[in-house]
Amino acid sequence: ETVARVPYFAYQSVLHTYETLGWWRVPELRRMHADEEWNELHHLLIMEALGGGKSWADRFLAQHAAVFYYFALLAFYLVSPQWSYKFSEMVENHARNTYTVFLEQNGPRLSRMPAPSIARAYYHRGLVYRYTDLTTNSTEHVIHDRPPCFDLFDVFNNIRNDEQEHVKTMVACQEFTTGDVEQEIDFDSSMEICGASCDVLSPMDPMFLKQSYGKTEESVARAEWKKWADSINSENDDKAKIQNSKP
Fold first, then answer.
1. What single-letter DSSP state applies at residue 151?
2. Cα separation of 219 and 203, whole Å?
3. Measured between alpha carbons, how far is 5 from 148 in angstroms, rounded to an integer?
4. Is residue 182 pLDDT above 60, yes or no?
5. Sign of the four-CA dihedral 195, 67, 161, 118
6. Distance between CA atoms of 70 and 12, rounded to whole angstroms?
7. By the 8 A CB rule, do 146 and 199 touch?
8. Beta-carbon neighbour count of residue 174 at 10 Å?
9. Are 95 and 162 in contact (CB under 8 A)?
10. Partners of 114 in the β-ladder
11. CA 156 to CA 135: how far, in whole Å?
């Protein structure tokens, strides 16, 4: 999952460079890749919560592979966005198939294990990525029902379904780059459904605290700071009283 985030960041980097140089401006495409990377980030957080990042060797291999992969994808995308998207489609399809086999082989065991808190927070309240929200194949755009996320079977099933959504997106991006678009991507709808106007937020989003607790991250931090300052002032007042009471 550390490596799985890289393609979408690489694509954003190239598209941002194109915009800076005034060559090609498709900010909606960057936004879509950002949504995909956000989804992969939460996959990584879930795997880390399950102990996937405990081994130093695993972290070393994944992080260094991700750096190499990033620069390779930059070059690949500069040469041919279409083939870059095709490559990502194949990778995401492999991931989907791998998770499917994993679920088939370990279903009963996974069903007895509880879902980690980050998985419950993301799939019950976060911005869950869905390709169907990015298309105009339907006359209505609605936020999907929240997928179940109570045990590890639900978690890995949801991740497997996420990978399927990425496959669909990569197919649409290939069509977009070649002009052979059978299903038009409605980026405005994607930003409305998956963007800041969505009525549910990821637990890592700064607005999550405001929605959940009626407070912004800044106000929470300020309250904690005031609590700390009051305790210090109270301690100093007590010391002063003791000092003054001495003959």
1. B
2. 16
3. 24
4. no
5. negative
6. 11
7. no
8. 19
9. no
10. 151
11. 25
